[in-house]
Amino acid sequence: MATLKNIAAAALCAALAGCGASDTANDPKPPAPARDGGELLLVVTGEAPPYVSYDEATGGFVGIEVDIASSAAAKLGKKLAIRREKFENLLPMVKAGEADMAASGITITEGRLKDVDFTDTVATEGGLFLYRAGDKAPSMVTAEALRVGVVDSTTHDFYLTYHNIDPIRYRFCTDAVKDLLAGKLDTVFYDKNTLEDSAAKSGGKLLVTALETRENFGIVVGKGATALKNALNEAIAERRAK
Question: How many CB atoms are located within 10 Å of the residue 48 CB?
Fold first, then answer.
């Protein structure tokens, strides 16, 4: 991703550029609901398979990181609650103590570690471009002249800005994919597995490029949440051992 010295500048650029098709940058944040002391709250975007995704059949969230969080909650004798939020809210909610954990394929960076903590690496993945079949495959070199969709405040957003690309920012990746299919975007830049899933569900209308970046994903916890972090790391280690 972008070098750390550029992240602050990139984040400022993101704030000034607005949210493109997602015209909700100035939405007031609702007050946090009262917390149940017997549960752990995990906040997610719900659209990062295989890490976290929404299962319409069951009406719940599923995925690798959901399983890890569920196991950690059980180890601590707690119930697990999951709530969907915009990506840009995930880390601030954990930092403020409004949530215990955040997940959805979140990249571990030194900049983020100043405000929150991360578990051990859950997976190593990367970012790539999603585009319409029949169009020329985009790259970081050609994307400057394209309408590029990205999820606001992600490392993908910062990476594009670092490469002098002014993207159109969205709350959720699914909204960007809809605009791509509708011809309102030329490409979407996001996590590999999420965009491969979108391409697979498109009936051949969408394709993906090779990886542009490589990143380590972890589950976010608050500073000083040692017991929770240890339980999560134990669950990650158990999963790797299977």
Answer: 26
The tens digit of pLDDT for each residue in 62-77 reads 999 999 999 999 999 9
According to DSSP, the residues that pair with 43 across neighbouring strands are 83, 102
Helix (H) or strand (E) holding 93, with range, is helix 87-95
Q: What residue numbers bound the domain in which 43 lies?
A: 39-123+216-241
User: pLDDT digits over 98-135, tens only?
Assistant: 999 999 999 999 999 999 999 999 999 999 999 999 99
Predicted TM-score (pTM) of the model is: 0.78
Same-domain check for residues 62 and 118: yes
Spatial CA neighbour of 127 closest among 102, 160, 90, 163: 160
Q: Backbone phi, then psi, for 110, in 5-degree steps? A: -65, -35
* pLDDT value, residue 242: 82
Ramachandran class of 131: left when φ > 0, alpha when ψ lies in -120 to 50, beta otherwise: beta
Beta-carbon contacts of 125 under 8 Å, excluding residues fewer than 6 positions away, are 105, 191, 192, 193, 214, 215, 217
Q: Is residue 8 part of a domain?
A: no
* DSSP character string of 216-230: EEEEEE-TT-HHHHH
The domain that contains 96 carries what CATH number?
3.40.190.10
- Given this model, what pLDDT does residue 36 score? 65
- In DSSP terms, 127 is beta-bridged to 191
